[in-house]
């Protein structure tokens, strides 16, 4: 074939008449293109080699599209991709005839930013159809382009280097996150002195105002944050592109999502903020406080503008200074009223000083460890004291700094005095304050951490729900830190009409006497004060919430004018957990122990126990609970000739195939990965403010399309994502952290227990209802519980089952009476329908367990009260009968009764006897009958309230009842006749309980101050300790003992608490409020002080409970609702953690453990997860571990196939009435020592001291709400060594 006869009229790239034909030929000069590498084409044996009449700049003929299409290439399916890419100016090729049937191609990529093309090569200029096809073909071509120099020059060797590395990167997003490099800020002469001092590890940071000592990695993180904030970080390449090297050794830039190539990559300015995502428990709070203290005197800067200057103004300068920006701004406000030169005086020295003190304060931090630095610090303090003693100080404070923010082009003047033509400017106060927004339960912790770590306490304002927000002037000038909970911050979105802030009016208020500073009394507009301040920085603690635009928090935060935005979180997304810190423990290298090392001892003895009731205790090191992956066998890199065989395949070769190679299976990123990436990009775009990601179309085309290709992440996609994460995230690799800090050992045990006979009856009755539902519905249609339309009922059923495994009752007896009536009918129907024999046997077994429960009077009577009954020994029969709700199934030995009594009755009986030790049996019996009658009245009233509520709900959803699956008790157990929960919540939030807790808080704080030498011991209130009466030995219940409850989990918890609580504190987590209520009642019964953190306790009181637990030795147990207590709290005074049920979500469980296992913990931490053997709980733990070891994502619980199958196929627990419960055995009354003989010497003094296993802690003041007014004075707090 001949070459085109008139090359001048044809495009020099594609060889056809196209839209680029009119351009000069040098536009597509090879020197301007990207020499990617070479390809090899095999021609068919009868193919005619191409002829040519023109030579390209590289000495080879050009391979135009018509020429390529005329060739008979061995692999015909590759002709179209090459031709398309050439025709549409994605590539340019030249060729060399190596032999009669072998062509060598040089591939030159046409960059999208090629000059002279009038922008028609850009991503946005090309049609969607061309781009889509071009991306597909480029992804086929680029991994095959060889960069062997010999092939480039026409030789033929097996390629080993390729232009685009297509090797599989099978890392998961958490693995990418964990491999991000640690921050490495550099010390430069142009950087602030604070950065240099932080990076000089010999400097102890004297003058920063810190009491605590920063670790080296913490200093590096703060230095990196300061470097980002300073704006001195150099511009960085666009992180959405990855660098590639061409044949000339030059760098070009490739976008994996769009396959776009650029020769010159435009730079982007890094964000002056980011995500502080250090591992949980590594001290993110002190890092933020150090950042604040480093810039505590620095005013925020006006927002950058390319169209106008935005000078820092003060009321004095704007009104009186005669020249420069001040005069021009005044002229814009009053163009028709120009002041004469006689009206504007030259500012006095005092005026200039007042202006500079406000607009340009001294921001230096003297190094007080040096003599010169100490002298400078003393001079600064002396100057401030002197200034405050002069009348100038009031003028200075009224001369607040601000700037005028104008949204449109401010050049020129207004067209009229009415302000038409240009919008009015908006006044924003400049400040050095940091606004910190945190979960409500962390506000007091932030306040405590400030006092703990800061030697000179900053001026802190806490804005709580119901607290009035001060004026913008006060916020900007009177405080260093403003603390706000999420909900209070979001409530400010009700006053966001920013248009009201734009005004052409200047303040005309009179001036202070003998001064030219205005005494401004202007009324601020009805707009949130937060929107009238240019904040130094905004910090969102637990900031992963900022990824959601559906909340009010992020949209409102975008309205704020903020110089630096920081997200603080240990878990940026659901699967980026940040939970590895602590794997390396002080107890030695962690690892999964062998079976020989497993601790099977439940009771604490040295012998191994395998009890029928308790089961086997499975002991694991922390590494068993931190994600592990099974190393996979990665194939060796495939022979390089396979890469070229795509184009040079021999038809006679058995391996001839159009597929390039038998590569290892790529890892396809799934829906959960996509949610994580979308959360990250949303967080960075909408909160941190990376404008690059503000366009959702760019996020999709450049990031999501590259990562979520149906064949796996595209080449370069993971490298791009890594660059993006590096640009905004500050975190240290865990190895770097653990070089400095090793936490105490963490042991996590799974405790497998059996159900008590009474609980097993309930469980089997519940399982029977599920089995009969499956059989009767034939596992199809809407009657079947697992039908998609019954998803809500299924969720409730699973939650009820979980509650039942701790303890639960049902006043409808789990439908057993109804099921008994239909026994014969169902079995006959099953036989008629030819149901499988396995289901027939399952039905028979189900009815057997239904009859076992139905014929137990004790079990039936227990269902009438949701409290857990306890087996009581040695109680008088008359007292038992009147005080127990369960008179059945009792036995008498030696005239005394053994039987079940509920804990609320036992507590009230004990209180009665303590008040009246010698009360008679008859009187106690009478009072028990009275108590029973009163309880019955309360119960009826409560049940009536529940019925009314249910009736109202039924009216709202009349048809819902008919859609419920047959036979299944789907009513949620937590709210079903739960008078125990109702009473427990009243107790937890009662005024007496709160008052007692607050009194103990004040006393514990006072004791800490006494230990520090701050407080006189005589000022400490004496505890209200009373000695039990010796008459209790003669009381009617002196010998009564309390045995096991009907809940084996509760027995285990109480035994553990009684065994260890004198020396260690406990955190007990549950997802159920009812479970926590049962534990609270048990702790009352055994007289162990506890606190609760749940929705039943008001937010403000929850904060105080955290502070009390951390500072008081009296409260030994903290009951925590998992969804509220698992994040953010610092509870290092506890060293034992118990989960009442398995937690399916790994991040939630690990977050909860991190409340205790973090920096500041000095004891080994013991974690126990309780599970019932042979139930879904055991299956949960088994499946979760298998998924973790296999590197699989953890799906939702009911989406996990094996767990769903386990629940859908009920299994029963054998009831062994003779099984012994190794549970409780404690006296109901704690009797005082036996009375001594009169002749003996007794010591009547009462020892009210309590030995503490804790270190002395800092004095923390209860935060006071403020509504403005005078600024709080800085105070110095002494800390214990």
TrEMBL record:
GO terms for biological process: DNA repair. Residues 944-963 have a biased composition (Basic and acidic residues). This is Helicase C-terminal domain-containing protein. Residues 1053-1202 form the Helicase C-terminal domain. Gene3D superfamilies: P-loop containing nucleotide triphosphate hydrolases, Tandem AAA-ATPase domain. Pfam families: Helicase_C (PF00271), SNF2-rel_dom (PF00176). It comes from the Eukaryota. Residues 1272-1281 have a biased composition (Basic residues). Residues 975-992, 1240-1252 have a biased composition (Polar residues). Coiled coil: none annotated. Keywords: ATP-binding, Hydrolase, Nucleotide-binding. GO terms for molecular function: ATP binding; ATP-dependent activity, acting on DNA; hydrolase activity. It comes from Tetrapyrgos nigripes.
């Amino acid at each position: 074939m001949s070459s085109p006869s008139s090359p001048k009229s044809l495009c020099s790239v594609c060889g056809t008449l196209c839209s680029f034909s009119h351009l000069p030929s040098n536009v597509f000069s090879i020197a301007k293109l990207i020499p990617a590498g070479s390809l090899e084409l095999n021609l068919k044996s009868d193919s005619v080699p191409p002829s040519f009449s023109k030579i390209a700049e590289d000495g080879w003929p050009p391979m135009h599209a018509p020429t390529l299409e005329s060739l008979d290439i061995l692999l015909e399916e590759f002709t179209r991709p090459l031709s398309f890419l050439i025709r549409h100016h994605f590539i340019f090729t030249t060729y060399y005839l190596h032999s009669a049937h072998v062509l060598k191609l040089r591939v030159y990529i046409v960059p999208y930013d090629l000059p002279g093309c009038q922008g028609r090569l850009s991503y946005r200029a090309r049609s969607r159809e061309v781009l889509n096809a071009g991306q597909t073909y480029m992804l086929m071509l680029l991994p095959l382009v060889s960069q062997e120099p010999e092939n480039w020059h026409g030789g033929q060797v097996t390629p080993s280097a390729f232009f685009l590395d297509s090797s599989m990167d099978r890392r998961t997003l958490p693995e990418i996150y964990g491999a991000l490099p640690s921050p490495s800020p550099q010390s430069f002469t142009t950087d602030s002195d604070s950065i240099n001092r932080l990076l000089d590890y010999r400097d102890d940071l004297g003058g920063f105002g810190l009491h605590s000592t920063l670790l080296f990695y913490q200093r590096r993180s703060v230095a990196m944050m300061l470097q980002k904030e300073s704006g001195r970080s150099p511009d960085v390449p666009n992180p959405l592109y990855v660098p590639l090297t061409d044949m000339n050794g030059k760098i070009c830039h490739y976008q994996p999502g769009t396959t776009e190539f650029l020769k010159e990559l435009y730079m982007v300015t890094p964000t002056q903020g980011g995500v502080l995502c250090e591992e949980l428990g590594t001290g993110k709070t002190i890092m933020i406080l150090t950042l604040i203290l480093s810039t505590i005197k620095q005013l925020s800067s006006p927002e950058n503008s390319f169209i106008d200057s935005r000078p820092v103004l003060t009321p004095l300068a704007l009104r009186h200074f005669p020249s420069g920006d001040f005069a021009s701004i005044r002229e814009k406000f009053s163009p028709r009223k120009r002041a004469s030169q006689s009206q504007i005086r030259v500012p006095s020295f005092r005026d200039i000083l007042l202006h500079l003190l406000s607009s340009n304060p001294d921001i230096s931090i003297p190094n007080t460890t040096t003599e010169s630095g100490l002298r400078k610090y003393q001079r600064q303090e002396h100057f401030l004291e002197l200034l405050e003693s002069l009348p100038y100080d009031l003028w200075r404070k009224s001369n607040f700094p601000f700037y005028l923010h104008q949204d449109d082009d401010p050049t020129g003047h207004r067209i009229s005095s009415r302000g038409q033509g240009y919008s009015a400017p908006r006044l924003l106060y400049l400040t050095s304050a940091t606004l910190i927004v945190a979960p409500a339960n962390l506000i007091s912790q932030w306040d405590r951490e400030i006092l703990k770590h800061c030697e000179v306490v900053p001026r802190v304002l806490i804005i709580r729900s119901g607290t009035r927000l001060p004026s913008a002037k006060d916020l900007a000038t009177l405080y260093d830190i403003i603390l706000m909970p999420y909900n209070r911050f979001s409530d400010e979105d009700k006053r966001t009409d920013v248009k009201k802030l734009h005004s052409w009016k200047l303040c005309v208020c009179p001036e202070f006497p003998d001064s030219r500073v205005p005494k401004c009394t202007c009324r601020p507009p009805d707009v949130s004060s937060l929107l009238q301040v240019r904040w130094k920085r905004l910090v969102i603690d637990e900031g992963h919430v900022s990824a959601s635009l559906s909340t009010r928090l992020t949209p409102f935060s975008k309205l704020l004018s903020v110089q630096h935005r920081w997200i603080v979180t240990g878990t940026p997304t659901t699967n980026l957990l940040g939970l590895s810190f602590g794997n390396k423990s002080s107890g030695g290298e962690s690892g999964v122990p062998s079976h020989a090392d497993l601790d099977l001892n439940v009771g604490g003895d040295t012998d191994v126990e395998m009890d029928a009731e308790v089961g086997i205790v499975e002991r694991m090191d922390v590494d068993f609970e931190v994600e592990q992956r099974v190393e996979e066998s990665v194939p060796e890199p495939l022979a390089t000739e396979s890469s070229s065989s795509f184009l040079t395949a021999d038809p006679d070769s058995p391996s001839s195939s159009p597929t390039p190679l038998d590569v290892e299976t790529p890892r396809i990123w799934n829906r959960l990965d996509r949610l994580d990436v979308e959360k990250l990009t949303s967080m960075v775009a909408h909160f941190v403010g990376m404008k690059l990601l503000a366009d959702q179309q760019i996020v999709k085309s450049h990031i999501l399309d590259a990562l979520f290709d149906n064949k796996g992440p595209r080449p370069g996609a993971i490298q791009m994502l890594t660059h993006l994460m590096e640009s905004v995230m500050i975190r240290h690799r865990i190895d770097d952290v653990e070089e400095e800090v090793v936490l105490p050992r963490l042991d996590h045990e799974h405790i497998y227990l059996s159900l008590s006979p009474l609980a097993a009856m309930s469980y089997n009755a519940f399982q029977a209802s599920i089995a009969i539902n499956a059989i009767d519905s034939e596992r199809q249609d809407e009657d079947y519980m697992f039908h998609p339309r019954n998803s809500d009922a299924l969720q409730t059923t699973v939650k009820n089952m979980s509650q039942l495994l701790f303890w639960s009752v049902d006043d409808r007896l789990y439908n057993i009476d109804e099921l008994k009536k239909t026994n014969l009918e169902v079995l006959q129907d099953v036989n008629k329908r030819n149901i499988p024999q396995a289901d027939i046997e399952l039905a028979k077994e189900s009815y057997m367990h239904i009859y076992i429960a139905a014929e137990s009077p004790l079990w039936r009577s227990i269902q009438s009260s949701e409290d857990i009954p306890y087996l009581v020994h040695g109680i008088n029969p008359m007292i038992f009968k009147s005080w127990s709700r369960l008179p059945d199934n009792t036995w008498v030995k030696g005239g005394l009764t053994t039987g079940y009594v509920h804990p609320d009755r036992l507590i009230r009986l004990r209180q009665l006897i303590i008040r009246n030790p010698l009360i008679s049996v008859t009187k106690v019996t009478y009072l028990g009958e009275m108590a029973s009658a009163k309880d019955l009245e309360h119960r009826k009233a409560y049940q009536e309230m529940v019925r009314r509520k249910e009736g109202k709900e039924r009216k709202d959803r009349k048809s819902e009842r008919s859609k419920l699956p047959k036979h299944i008790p789907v009513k949620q157990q937590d709210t079903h006749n739960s008078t125990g929960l109702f009473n427990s919540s009243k107790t937890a939030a009662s005024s007496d309980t709160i008052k007692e807790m607050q009194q103990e808080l004040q006393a514990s704080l006072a004791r800490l101050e006494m230990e520090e030498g701050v407080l006189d011991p005589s000022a400490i209130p004496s505890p209200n300790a009373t000695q039990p009466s010796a008459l209790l030995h003669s009381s009617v219940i002196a010998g009564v003992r309390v045995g096991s409850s009907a809940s084996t989990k509760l027995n285990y918890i109480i035994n553990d608490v009684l065994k260890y609580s004198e020396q260690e504190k406990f955190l007990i987590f549950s997802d159920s409020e009812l479970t926590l209520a049962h534990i609270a009642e048990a702790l009352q019964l055994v007289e162990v002080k506890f606190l609760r953190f749940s929705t039943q306790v008001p937010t403000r009181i929850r904060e105080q409970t955290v502070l009390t637990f951390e500072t008081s030795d009296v409260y030994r147990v903290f009951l925590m609702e998992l969804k509220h207590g698992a994040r953010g709290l610092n509870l290092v005074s506890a060293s034992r953690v118990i989960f009442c049920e398995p937690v399916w979500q790994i991040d939630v469980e690990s977050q909860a453990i991190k409340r205790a296992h973090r920096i500041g913990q000095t004891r080994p931490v013991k974690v126990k997860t309780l599970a019932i053997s042979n139930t879904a709980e055991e299956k949960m733990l088994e499946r979760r571990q298998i998924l973790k070891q296999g590197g699989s994502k953890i799906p939702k619980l009911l989406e996990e196939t094996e767990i769903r199958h386990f629940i859908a196929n009920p299994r029963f627990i054998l009831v062994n009435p003779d099984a012994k419960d190794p549970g409780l055995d404690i006296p109901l009354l704690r009797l005082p020592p036996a009375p001594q003989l009169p002749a003996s010497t007794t010591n009547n003094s009462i020892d009210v001291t309590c030995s503490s296993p804790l270190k002395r802690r800092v004095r923390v003041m209860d935060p006071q709400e403020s509504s403005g007014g005078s600024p709080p004075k800085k105070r110095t707090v002494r800390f214990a060594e």
